Amino acid sequence: MAAIIAATLYLSFLLQAVVGGALLLIATFCLAFSVYNLNKVSDLKEDLVNQPNRAQFVKKYRDYIVFACLESVIIAVILAFFTNPAAILVILFPFYVGLFYSMGIHRKRIKDVFVLKNITIAAAITVGASLLPLAIHVAIPLVVLLVAYWFFLKVFTHSVVLDVRDIDGDRKAGVRTIPVSLGRNKTRNLLLFLNSTLILWLVFSLYQGLFYPYLFALILSVLYGYWFILRFTRSPKATGLFELFISGEWLILAMYATPFALGWPHIL
To answer: First CA to last CA across the chain, in angstroms?
Structure first.
């Protein structure tokens, strides 16, 4: 999952024509590792129902996981500082959001609030992916806004589809997710509608002459979105690679876009 989140920043670098940024990629990897695993520590109650094997592992090695998470945050801050001190603010934003999301305040967690859970996840990743490139290169505001919308919508969709898998555990834990509240069918229709707005996004970007030659990868992303929404909101039982199929989209796009970043094929 840390590699997947780092891939979102890598794709943002490509879309915003940013060269370099290796330290920020590593910092994002470390930060994602920390936030993701701290969330698993706080999710023991739900995961004992949804994913008991992982929950038992987290329960057994809880102290080691927490220590590794704190060390990862420190490394992320140091790497961000050596790139641009201002990047520290962007790096720490997802971390503190992750703490409020998982731990909460006075026993109130963001993830327990209807819809706010998914918006928070999407916003945290979007802020990092769309704003960290600005620590290296000043981009056109329109480009930043378009990139932010793309990442927000895709991450929001990913998080809701993942909630479909966890309906049983979330319902028993009293967590009001979108799938728990709307049911599978209405959730699927909502996600299909949101994914369709990206077609308009592609048309507008093409008209403005933006994101070439990565539009090919972005078209693939829209098509892939239709596939996993239809596939994983209808199946009551997800495969063991469920999470990789959903969030792993960023790795697929990163690999697909890399040849274009290297200037191949020239005829396109």
So the answer is: 32
What mean pLDDT is predicted for residues 189-204?
A: 96
**Angle made by CA atoms 90, 93, 95, in degrees to the nearest 5:** 125
Rounded distance, CA 129 to CA 217, Å? 17
Q: In the 8-state DSSP scheme, what is residue 211?
A: S
Domains in the chain: ranges and CATH: 2-256 (1.10.600)
- Tokens coding 137: 């290169």
Q: Which residues of 158-176 are buried (b: 16+ CB within 10 A; e: fewer)?
A: bbbbbbbbbbebbeebebe
Q: Do 177 and 168 meet the contact criterion of CB atoms below 8 Å apart? A: no
Name the pTM for this structure: 0.83
Please report the DSSP string for 226-262 in residue order: HHHHHHHTT-SS--TTHHHHHHTHHHHHHHHHHHHHT
pLDDT in tens, 91-115: 888 877 777 766 655 566 666 666 7
Helix (H) or strand (E) holding 65: helix 62-83
- CA dist 60 and 162 (Å) reads 25
Decide if 172 contacts 57 (C-beta within 8 A): no
Average pLDDT for 228-232:
88
Question: CA-CA-CA-CA torsion for 99, 74, 64, 95, nearest 10 degrees?
Answer: 20
Q: Which residue has the tokens 């040849």?
A: 259
Instruction: Identify the bridge partners of residue 108 per DSSP, sorted by sequence position.
Output: 105
Among the ranges given (24-33, 54-63, 130-139), the one the predictor scored with the smallest mean pLDDT? 54-63
- Phi-psi map region of 20: left, alpha, beta (phi>0 left; psi -120 to 50 alpha): left
